[in-house]
């Protein structure tokens, strides 16, 4: 049973997809920082993006923009435990926003993944 669970996790991570940041076609990789916890979500990006916000499960709207420190590391702090799945939004260089719904799973842990942007606002 543990083997099939591990295989499922590997398959889920292996099913990574790409999405374009603006029109430049760069691949954006999100890494959940090792300092993340039930009340803190640290997201590290491999390229410069701006106006990053998240929407945990049950929230009616996206958070205020996350603070960036150090460069390409965005932190979301909450007084309550953060519930997933979590949607991710950022400003694209070509204008508008890119939204990736439920990109961060409910049981998020420090893991690297890429996901497709599925709509623009």
UniProtKB/TrEMBL annotation:
Residues 1-24 form the signal peptide. Keywords: Secreted, Signal. GO terms for cellular component: extracellular region. Residues 31-105 form the Expansin-like CBD domain. The keyword Glycosyltransferase does not apply. Coiled coil: none annotated. InterPro entries: Expansin_CBD, Expansin_CBD_sf. It holds the Pfam family Expansin_C. The keyword ATP-binding does not apply. It is found in: Secreted. This is Expansin-like CBD domain-containing protein.
